[in-house]
Amino acid sequence: MRFNGSFITAFAVSLLVAACSQQVDLPTDTEPPTSSEPPVVTNPDPTPPDTQTPPPTPNDPPAVSVNGVPQTLDLETPVEVWWASHPYNPESPNFIPVGGIQSPDPVLNVRDEFGGNIQAAIDALPASGGTLYFPPGTYGGNWTLVGKSNVHFISDGGAVLTGVGFVVGCTDAIDYQRLMERVRVEKNPDAINCVTDGRIENIYFKNLTFDGGGTQLLAITIRAARQVLFDNVTFQNYRDPGNYHRGLINATAWVDDIWVRDSRFLGSERWAVYFDGCFACGVIGSEIAGNFGNGGLLILTNQDADFDINGDGIFQENEIRQANHIVVANNTFGGLHQGIQITGKDALVVGNTATADQAIFVQFSAKCDQVNPNAGIHSVFNNLRVENNRVAGVNAFVRVNAYPDGCGSGNTMEIGGYYVAGNTVERFYGTNPGLVVEVSGPIVDPRVITDNLCGGVACDNQVRALAE
């Protein structure tokens, strides 16, 4: 995202690219305009599939549980090593099953105690947090969770939420442009605390359905927050406006440890999920339907949030908000123009299945910081791993885009160090297809392509280069 000091209204962006095109337009770095209050809505009435674990039921409690959503952020360890012992990796010895998060007291019954009013229930929680329990039923109305950690939204099933939710660290974070103004221009101490040590944490959604009633554009926005987990959640009946690059989940400023597991994104909008500048985030074992306008998962670098927090004149890795330590694992994708787009480093795309054609299965892109000109920021986009995925048909299975976006600002970037291994492509289609497509070079070594099959035969040599 690019922050403009005049805080102009964000402009519309759309990826209007034919399925077999050689060029793919990237989303701009501008967030869709957001009101200082949650939007008004009309409330309506009330792993590949063969190995995917079914959603838990109240009668099948997990064998292992932990107290609260865990912190997993570790930028020092390579993503593949980090993921091997990660608590959301089903093959990890530390695995926490879906539904295996213990929820805090007190427990408030949203239907019986508050007549279904979510905001009233949130406001009734003590400062220390608690659990909102949703019995079966439909719950209307927008809601905001501001500055209160340790809040869990829990159901045993049958609960449908029809409003728009905000999960934010402070009131300023409800409005994206206002938050950037307070942090970057005013350098307000309260706002800086909101996006650093004061972020809300341990937020959990389990066994819920978010329903847009065919009119809403998104379900939930997350800013200045960390340790947010969605377990067995369904998102359905949303509307694709044909512009901007929103997702049904928007996590867009100073967000860490945002995870989705065993959930269903049934449409629509431009993207199913939009993470911006996210550290240690991912989507695991979920279904992404084929009715999203641009693609499935959009995971970008947020230049607006590149900020010298400690004021030492040097941008450390944790002060550069490029997507970092991203995992997309064991999901099922429908037919989309683009399954996954990542502008970041240490990214692992593993064990996914696309059951219908994708023009591009995964694209890795790079860009220079344009918000802090001549700051000496060298953005590195490396350790990009695509392993053991299966797709029905593609034009470009992996696209690595080295176009020097924004590099006239005096900052620099590099992209490369990719590893494409053990993948299966059933067929290629369109003009100049390729297992790996490199755009605009140079691409930094190492570039490892091994043990891939296309149409049943080895295809590691199917690499092509394009000029942007």
TrEMBL record:
Entries under InterPro entries matching the protein: Pectin_lyas_fold, Pectin_lyase_fold/virulence
Domain of life the protein comes from: Bacteria
Protein name: Uncharacterized protein
Keyword list, A-Z: Signal
Region of interest called Disordered, as start-end residue ranges on this chain: 25-69
Gene3D superfamilies linked to this entry: Single-stranded right-handed beta-helix, Pectin lyase-like
Keyword Signal: yes
Keyword Ribosomal protein applies: no
Composition bias type Low complexity, residue spans: 27-44
Compositional bias of kind Pro residues: 45-61
PROSITE patterns for this protein: PROKAR_LIPOPROTEIN
Signal peptide feature range: 1-23
